Please model this.
Amino acid sequence: MVAAVSEAVYVAGKLALAYYRPGATTVAGIFHKSGGSPVTEADQIVDRYLAQELPPLSPEAGWLSEESEDSAARLSRERIFIVDPIDGTRGFMRGHSGWAIAVALVENGRPVLGIVHAPALGATYIAVQGAGARLNGEIITVSKTAALTSGAIIAAPGSLAERLRQTGLEFELQPRIPSLALRIANVASGALDAGFASANARDWDIAAADLILHEAGGLLTTLDGSEICYNSAETSHGPLIAAPARIHAEAKAAARRASAKH
Model:
């Protein structure tokens, strides 16, 4: 299963790369959804390819993708594929390298397989429940930092980063990566000491990266410290904290203080 899903994701990456232009506007057609957010021809091509390749690998599994029509039928499935064909579409459109294809296999609300593949960066994060997390085949673990003190490297939206600083937290802010999945994966690899996300992340943005972070020794939770349950009727989530387990409580407390300033 892992090998077959991985192969499908690698091929999907090649399909997307055909439309990607480093530092320049994509050659893919650009459209807009009813809410105004952009989607490209590449998103749609990758979505159709994965919708063709993945379901036969687990015929009993449901399907949830950012670019597929949702169906309530998925709610009755214990197992489901959750897919973001291109996470970070706006970055992809503008030639930024920080976009990714995110695929998770979820069972009973929690991911058991997660892949975040960033073709333009040559980076592939894979995790299997209970088997650790890997980046390009090498085991990864979260940062060993003991506290979010001066010098910590974090990722956070600009307005949230400012409120975090107002709470007294001192840190180095990583330049924005368009893909939220990739930002969380960077916490898993130790490239970041913590990551914070504003409200409205969706299942497909975070499910794969959630498992990768967990298997690397970290936690992705809500402001109250709850783990995320996937494949509910509501796929949108509130503010989130991604951090190594040893400093997650500190990061959560900072996020709660920052939220109170909003």
Remarks:
- The two ends are 44 Å apart (CA to CA).
